[in-house]
């Protein structure tokens, strides 16, 4: 029987980095988490314990901090591209680099119409993301957002689904639609303003969600992705993941009251999970 090492990779995860960019009259604060994964000629490290081609994960961590000083000055996508370029250029044994970055957003506090120069407030649970994958001849960039908690109180229903002997869910033409959306999109090229593009795509996603008359989460997911591709020519495809954060009407009849679709039980688990990729 022949045994061999198949796919393999290694890297450093959860590298948490905070940076202050000191401008003349205010401070800019950035906080990111970086994951690195390297693929390449590492077979003997696994099979023989030969570490001569291994770039230590501690070195990878240190590289992130060192390069951030001069090169983390704009978008997380641009910084991710710089990191992947560095690891490919300086390690001939590496054939593929994956850089996964999550940014934890903060906004400067404002008082009496003026921004405070160095005090910040967290933006909320949602975070911007960037995924850069580079091999010897190609680089792809995906931007995204995750933990985007969105909800609307009407213009959503779920009817005409399969009913069998195990079905207990009631049909409804008016329900709460809530989800913790995760989206990522692939660019047609890598020369655009990533920060501006991400903000524009986010706005399209939110606007479509808000104004779409939803017959199902599936339909709303497709409408959101379709709108992004229609409005933003630089996007090649978009993937969305939308867990259904259920809000179940509470039985008030046991107390002699009538629930006018206004009192609900918010549940975390179990939940429906709807996913899809929309492409040109």
TrEMBL record:
The active site is at residues 12, 57, 246. One of its GO terms (molecular function) is urate oxidase activity. Pathway: Purine metabolism; urate degradation; (S)-allantoin from urate: step 1/3. It catalyses: urate + O2 + H2O = 5-hydroxyisourate + H2O2. It comes from the Bacteria. 5-hydroxyisourate binds at residues 57, 158, 175, 217-218, 244. The keyword Cell wall biogenesis/degradation does not apply. The keyword Oxidoreductase applies. It is an enzyme of class 1 (oxidoreductase). O2 binds at residues 57, 244. Urate binds at residues 57-58, 158, 175, 217-218, 244. GO terms for biological process: purine nucleobase metabolic process; urate catabolic process. Its EC number is 1.7.3.3. Keywords: Oxidoreductase, Purine metabolism. InterPro entries: Uricase. Catalyzes the oxidation of uric acid to 5-hydroxyisourate, which is further processed to form (S)-allantoin. Belongs to the uricase family. This is Uricase. The gene is pucL.
């Amino acid at each position: 029987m022949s045994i061999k090492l198949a796919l393999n990779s290694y890297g450093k995860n959860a590298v948490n980095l905070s940076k202050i960019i000191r401008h003349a009259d205010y401070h800019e604060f950035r906080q990111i988490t970086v994951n690195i994964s390297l693929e390449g000629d590492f077979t003997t490290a696994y099979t023989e314990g030969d570490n001569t081609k291994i770039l230590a994960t501690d070195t990878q961590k240190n590289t992130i901090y060192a390069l951030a000083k001069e090169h983390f000055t704009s978008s997380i996508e641009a910084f991710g591209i710089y990191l992947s370029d560095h690891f490919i250029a300086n390690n001939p044994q590496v054939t593929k680099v994956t850089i996964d970055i999550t940014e934890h957003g903060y906004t400067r506090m404002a008082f009496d119409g003026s921004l405070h120069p160095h005090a910040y407030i967290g933006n909320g649970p949602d975070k911007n993301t960037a995924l850069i994958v580079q091999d010897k001849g190609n680089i792809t960039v995906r931007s995204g957002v995750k933990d985007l908690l969105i909800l609307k109180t009407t213009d959503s229903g779920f009817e005409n689904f399969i009913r069998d002997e195990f079905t207990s869910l009631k049909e409804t033409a008016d329900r709460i639609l809530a989800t913790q959306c995760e989206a990522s999109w692939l660019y047609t090229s890598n020369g655009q303003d990533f920060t501006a593009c991400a903000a524009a795509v986010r706005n399209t996603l939110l606007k479509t969600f808000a104004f779409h008359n939803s017959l199902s989460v599936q339909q709303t997911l497709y409408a959101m992705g379709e709108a992004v591709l229609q409005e933003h020519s630089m996007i090649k495809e978009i993937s969305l993941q939308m867990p259904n954060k259920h809000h179940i009407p509470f039985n008030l009849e046991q107390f002699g009251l009538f629930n006018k679709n206004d009192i609900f039980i918010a549940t975390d688990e179990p939940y429906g999970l709807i996913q899809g990729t929309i492409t040109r």
